[in-house]
Specification:
Order of helices and strands: EEEEEHHH
Low-confidence stretches: none
Radius of gyration: 13 Å
Structural class: alpha+beta
Largest sheet: 3 strands, antiparallel
CATH class: Alpha Beta
Number of helices: 3
Distance between the termini: 36 Å
Strand content: 15-25%
Mean pLDDT: 91
Helix content: 25-40%
Strand order of the largest sheet: 4-3-5
Length: 89
Amino acid sequence: MSAKKIPLRQCVGCGEMKNKKEMIRVLKTSEDEIVLDATGRKNGRGAYLCPSMKCFKKAVKSKGLERSFKMAIPKEVYETLEKEMEEFG
């Protein structure tokens, strides 16, 4: 039997490839809302972040999320995500 393939995702903050289950999924819904997806199952475009504030700050600074979603992200959305990240971690 072959080993089961583990899905890897790249952090938009630090750029490291990690196991999908270890990461936090940030989601852009069809209504162009940006939310944290704790289940990893919601419909929409996903981007992944390491569960650390350091990676979140890097992603904000390098505009990693904006590149992933191909849209400008308002400051308020980043503030909301930051609060949710603090609760998550």
